[in-house]
Amino acid sequence: MEKREFHVTAETGIHARPATLLVQAASKFSSEVSLQYQDKSVNLKSIMGVMSLGVGQNAEITITTDGEDEADAMNAVAETLKKEGLSD
Amino acid sequence: MTVNLKGIAASDGLVCGRAYRLVEPDLSFERRQVSNLDNELKRFHQALEAAVSDVETIKMRATKSLGTDGAQVFSTHITMLQDPDLIAAVERTIREDGVNAESAWANAVADFEETLEKMTDNPYMQERVTDLHDINKRVLAHLLQVALPDLALIDQPVIVVTHDLIPSDTVSVNPQFILGFVTDVGGRTSHSSILARSLNIPAVVGTQTATQAVKPGDQLVINGSQGTVIVDPDLATWQTAKQAMVDRQANLDHLATFRNHKTTTKDGRGVTLAANIGNASDLPSVLQNGAEAVGLMRTEFLYMNGDQLPTEDEQFAVYREVVKSLSPKTVVIRTLDIGGDKPLPYLHQHPEANPFLGERAIRQSLAHQQIFRSQLRALLRASAYGHLRIMFPMIATLDEFRQAKAIYDDERSKLTTKQVPLGDVKVGMMVEVPAAALLADRFAQEADFMSIGTNDLIGYTLAADRTNQDVAYLYQPYHPAVLRLINQVISAGHAAGIPVAMCGEMAGDPIAVPLLLGMGLDEFSMGAGTILKTRELIGQLTADDLGALAETALNSASTSQEVVTMVQAAVPGIVS
């Protein structure tokens, strides 16, 4: 299992566009990918779940990947966060 | 039986064709118990697949007209339709409660909608409820096996009959298959009308009853020049319209030969013909109509489409796309012209007794600087991608121009400090308040360019609201007083060595064009659909003769009618 924390820098937080791209990135892998914010954890392959967290600017989030391709999944998610200007 | 409908003439042309009713179908259903659960699950998955395939088609069309960024919302819809948690919830309800797929699906969507609506601290997410409504309807329509009409799914020539078109419909329109538009509501300046004119598609708006009177597949003849719609016409009427379509196409083909020509008079004087646009989705019409620049991009749609202010990044994405895809053509973007008659509900502006004389445009921007500054930053960032000019609307005093310019300079230097790449930007103003026209020589010392906004300039000069039928006769573009103001602005600009443009409807008016050429106007910016006609007209005119015509009209005409007579005498065969 891999676990990494991110600080959300984008003004708009994780809104629809980055949520879509994060879900698309996570869905390419067989590992379970989850996103934790405050005391809630959701499936990062579920856009409804991601959107229901309402992650705003300056949020601290934790991504967990668990499965055969967990390392690759983590890298793909981290790269999407960075590319979308969501996190450093 | 033949039925005649009367509406408002919104976009010229006579066409005939079959009706496509763009009206939402009845999607009501009952919750019921089902015995064959496997079959219910199968129905659900088939409906989901069909919905995804619809959205894929719509996304493809939107990508063509808007680019990948603009089509992003449809990727979100697809991701929603493929959401594993949502699908699992629906499957569970079908299995455990033994209910039909319609109610299981609608419940699952409603649960999530509730979650979003509770996010009162995040209005952006609350707004995503509209996306949910969209996918909800799409799946239900497939489950209920009713057609969910959608502009993007039209694949044969039809006349679209609808209540009203909304700005987001623009992205789905495939002009190749749309012969005409008929709407229940709207006027000549409503979104549907502007869209139809920019695409050169005949339209009749404000018929009030078209969606009730017309059935899918009805034969229609619509006359966009007279504002009439005939349902189930007799053969002779149908054939007349058919012939008019052939003639119209021949004329469009003829005009298309001017697409890649430069705009010059018979004696070789060159001017620029530019397009007025309101959205990135207007870009194809700019290119198809051979515009040499964009002389006015309105930015109101960015603010009026949503329930909250657009973010700086959202604006940046749109401005960048426009500037970049038109480079090296110049693009003039006007800062927000809102307030008064075009209020933004979410800003809670107080009602004004005289909106046209109230806190609108630059007055609103200077009073609410955070909105103005965010727009200027987005524009400045986009300037690195092409040739951008920024224009302030409704300037009445030098003080206003200086204040707006100082805010611009301030934002520019902040971005420069942050080493954000910026392009060379010219900063100019619209001349639409008579006070600014009269003082144009002073403004010309400080502005990089001036653009005459005739729609408002005429209204303010004759003190008449052209949307008020009782005084609409006072909307007189050729009134000698208006011509003198325009001439004063052009002369003042040239004396100071800056270019002068015009971005009102008058710039494409065949009676006005010879006069404006005679006064030396540099750039004519108009609805894209008028550009080719105007280029053909200018090619038939001799600039040398027009100086004298303009001078006579300015010095010795007393009425609008006298001006028209002078132009018609000087340019035989010209029609208004």
UniProtKB/TrEMBL annotation, chain A:
Domain (HPr) ranges: 1-88
GO biological process: phosphoenolpyruvate-dependent sugar phosphotransferase system
Annotated Pfam families: PTS-HPr (PF00381)
GO cellular component, one term: cytoplasm
Domain of life: Bacteria
Entry keywords, A to Z: Cytoplasm, Phosphoprotein, Phosphotransferase system, Sugar transport, Transport
SUPFAM superfamilies: HPr-like
Localization of this protein: Cytoplasm
Record has Transmembrane as a keyword: no
Role according to the record: P-Ser-HPr interacts with the catabolite control protein A (CcpA), forming a complex that binds to DNA at the catabolite response elements cre, operator sites preceding a large number of catabolite-regulated genes. Thus, P-Ser-HPr is a corepressor in carbon catabolite repression (CCR), a mechanism that allows bacteria to coordinate and optimize the utilization of available carbon sources. P-Ser-HPr also plays a role in inducer exclusion, in which it probably interacts with several non-PTS permeases and inhibits their transport activity. General (non sugar-specific) component of the phosphoenolpyruvate-dependent sugar phosphotransferase system (sugar PTS). This major carbohydrate active-transport system catalyzes the phosphorylation of incoming sugar substrates concomitantly with their translocation across the cell membrane. The phosphoryl group from phosphoenolpyruvate (PEP) is transferred to the phosphoryl carrier protein HPr by enzyme I. Phospho-HPr then transfers it to the PTS EIIA domain.
Family: Belongs to the HPr family.
Name of the protein: Phosphocarrier protein HPr
Organism, as annotated: Levilactobacillus senmaizukei DSM 21775 = NBRC 103853
